[in-house]
Design goal:
The protein is α+β, with helices and mostly antiparallel strands. The protein has 10 helices and 14 strands.
Length: 348
């Protein structure tokens, strides 16, 4: 790994983002429109910005740029043919010696595998729903906690989570785990379903991260066991599920509850060594206990994304939000990287 001299001033920025040729044309157009808006927003803050669109290869796209002169705003979430490439992208940036925004390969690896993420939450004593990894149907033996929710361990953005993911009987649980194993071809995470409120806690910073206004997802007219942000609610704008999941920022929380939610989210942010910015998804049970259900380093910052809504509620427009993330990354340029920790083994 090369470690060239870091840029002396935060002036020249590479906006690194990805577009996949397999996406529907409207998704490709939207990705480029978001990149254009982010580009313009950063330029409005006096930065020289070069957008770099990548499909399959990162380092060749960055070959014209000197790491001693340029900082990378890393908005590259995947590579064509490899939807799980986030850790590889960060590793490539480090190998080339670039200072870049967002979390490093270790964090992206752990957060990209729900079993590893849950293991680290549990090891750190952070409240999270009871869980089990199923590599095969036999691993379900003895599970009695219903309702439960079944998730593929390697997907993000609620991919693979549909209304059928919440199950209320052993037969339905077995069928859903079988679907994940055979259709999605990966292990299944079985988790106790926590009724209650769904909260998104966006934070930014390092060491002592600053919380942004908390967002709550309101489930309009949905039964308790339908109250999940599934892949239709998240991505299909024409679906009823999308129309019935309504974000509200800031969430109406009393002072004590808000402090406890932020405390738990901060513990999760630190436990997974999230860097610069992130989002922690929490279920607030009826008894007031906040349970971490997901940790998102490098969360989506598209125009309509949850992190962007929370930043806007704090007074940050799109460009100012991105510029602040860059400043947070810049502030750690002289710090030594933390020693890497071994990943825990996760048993089924």
């Amino acid at each position: 790994m090369r470690h060239p001299s870091r840029p002396r001033t935060l002036r020249q920025v590479i906006l690194l983002y990805n577009v996949d040729g397999a996406w529907p044309p409207e998704d490709q157009m939207y990705a480029r429109e978001c990149a254009r808006r982010l580009h313009e927003g950063l330029q409005a803050h006096g930065l020289v910005v070069h957008p770099v669109e990548v499909c399959r290869e990162v380092l060749s796209a960055l070959a014209p740029y000197d790491p001693a002169e340029w900082v990378v705003f890393n908005w590259c979430e995947a590579l064509e043919g490899d939807p799980y490439a986030e850790p590889r992208i960060a590793r490539a940036l480090e190998s080339a010696g670039f200072l870049y925004t967002g979390s490093g390969p270790w964090t992206l690896t752990v957060a990209g595998n729900k079993a590893l993420m849950k293991a680290f939450l549990t090891l750190n004593g952070i409240p999270t729903p009871t869980w089990r990894v199923c590599q095969r149907l036999l691993d379900l033996e003895g599970w009695t906690d219903f309702p439960a929710i079944v998730k593929p361990i390697r997907e993000h953005g609620s991919i693979g989570i549909t209304p059928e993911a919440v199950v209320t009987s052993p037969a339905a649980l077995r069928a859903r785990v079988e679907y994940v194993l055979e259709t999605l071809r990966q292990p299944a995470l079985v988790e106790a379903f926590i009724p209650g409120r769904e909260l998104n806690v966006s934070l930014w910073g390092n060491g002592d991260p600053e919380p942004l206004p908390i967002s709550e997802i309101l489930f309009d007219g949905l039964r308790e066991e339908e109250q999940i942000v599934d892949q239709f609610a998240k991505w299909d704008r024409q679906s009823e599920r999308y129309r019935r999941t309504i974000p509200q920022v800031p969430a109406p929380l009393d002072e004590r509850t808000e402090a406890e939610v932020v405390h738990v989210a901060t513990l999760a942010y630190r436990a997974l060594r999230v860097r610069d910015y992130g989002r922690v998804d929490i279920r607030l049970a009826p008894d007031g206990m906040p349970y971490v259900i997901d940790v998102n380093p490098n969360p989506d910052i598209s125009l309509d994304a949850g992190f962007v809504r929370s930043a806007a509620a704090a007074g940050y427009d799109y460009g100012r939000m991105a510029a602040h993330i860059l400043r947070i990354a810049w502030a750690r340029r002289t710090r030594r990287a933390p020693v890497s920790l071994a990943l825990p083994r996760v048993r089924a």
